[in-house]
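INFO  loader      accepted 1 record
INFO  loader      residues=277
INFO  predictor   begin
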Amino acid sequence: MSLNVELLKEIASEVRHRVQPLIGVKKAWRTLGRGAGGDRTRLIDAVAEEAVFEKLKEKKVSCVVVSEEKGATRIGGGGGGYLIVDALDGTNNALRGIPFCCVSLAAADRPKLSAVHSAVVQDLYHGETFWALKGGGAFLEGKPLAPSKTESLRDALVGVDLNPPIPEGKAGSLLRLLRAAKHSRHFGANALELCYVASGRLDAFVEVRDRMRVTDLAASQLIIQEAGGLITNEAGGRLDAPASTPRFRLSFLAAGNKNLLNRIVSILHGGSLRLNP
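INFO  predictor   done
INFO  writer      dumping tokens
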């Protein structure tokens, strides 16, 4: 079976089925070591990721899985493309019973963000499923997604990842942005927050700590673009990156429209830069 949106939805539903009984449960905290992405692997992370591998084996899929816990793993010979996986984004929320976490699944022909052709992000608590096909649009369940038209930072709701460590050279630019944006948020699951930008629930999202893994970003960056939103590197240029290992990290800016993203780029760089997609 090939990697397609319907298979990704099926995998996501299986992950949700396995993870839901562990959300907010004490045993889910058990540490099993460190994953390929460098973070501690909790029991709930391992259960989520194992659900992905078991479903792939059940469906006799041949591909290379790039995942946060196991790294790059060949399944069924590995000749059917790449599946870039964060089986549980928002682990700390899930451990505490905070209802904001997701599974992120992206299928690609090559191990690069620009090669992703199918994407699914499912809210593991509420069951909402965001998905996209390259050249075919982006959807929440069956309804087309449309990003925000808000152009003013004073009116915008902006997601900003402020989790440490924040590089010393970035603190000043982030402070300028927070002063300019009247309303800021961070919910703790970046892949799902990016889908909120695609749907217009958030007007923009900013990550300039060089901490975002490609496994978190692979699915939602396609969903944003297919919805008609924008996602760029920190300088406002084209966003792309290798996706062969979960250790690769990067920064990005996302917004519903060009004028808002231009404003964010300008503030972060002290008025010296504008978009260069």
